[in-house]
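Exercise: predict the fold of this chain.
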Amino acid sequence: MAHWNERADLAATFRWAARLNMHEAVANHFSLAVNDAGTEFLINPNQKHFSRIKASDLLLLDADDPSALEAANAPDPTAWGLHAAIHRTCPHARCVMHTHSIWSTVLACLSDSNLPPIDQNTATFYNRYVIDEAFGGLAFEEEGLRCASMLSDPAKKVMIMGNHGILVVGKSVADTWNRLYYFERAAETYVRALQTGQPLRVLSDDIAKKTASELDDYPGQAEAHLTELRAILDEENNNYAC
């Protein structure tokens, strides 16, 4: 089967999203472009639980071929609406991960969904996200295109989807998973800090900018993160790579 290592990488992230409770059962979707133009992409099949997704289960779709919605193994229509739109219009977004993970979604439900730099993890995302404040319902074709239009700047790799959840993009599965994981951690830190009712110790713009830049260039972290997760699954004889 083509793109096997990419399939196994993506399948491993579904398993870990379920393990870390960063999933929505049989909803939410991760996708990965596999051609140079970015229009052909792998995505999870419709209505399969994240904890059971295997490499061989992943659908291979063409963002320019809407007949996929009429196939026997058609993707979830909201998966098509959002992910196909992004892969069709944002070639820099090689991998796209969208979840309703708890802490990121709490942040997305606040009237001010900005993430201030109060620690190293939150500083990672300084000036690197967009906030969607115009939620228009389920991500069918029109809503998917509207969301995709907000990702035209390659520097903005996180979309805080107001009243909805979180979406992250990246250059690979490892890069995108690492970003999703740390954004969820950052959102949890921020929300828990708010819950104390105490004033926040916010980093200066200069230090936040410096920290974000240093973490952008930190060597090999994302790749090592995913390699270790796959190693743990392999040691458990997990069938994700089947």
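Check your answer against the key: Residues 4-235 form a domain with the L-fuculose-1-phosphate Aldolase fold (CATH 3.40.225.10).
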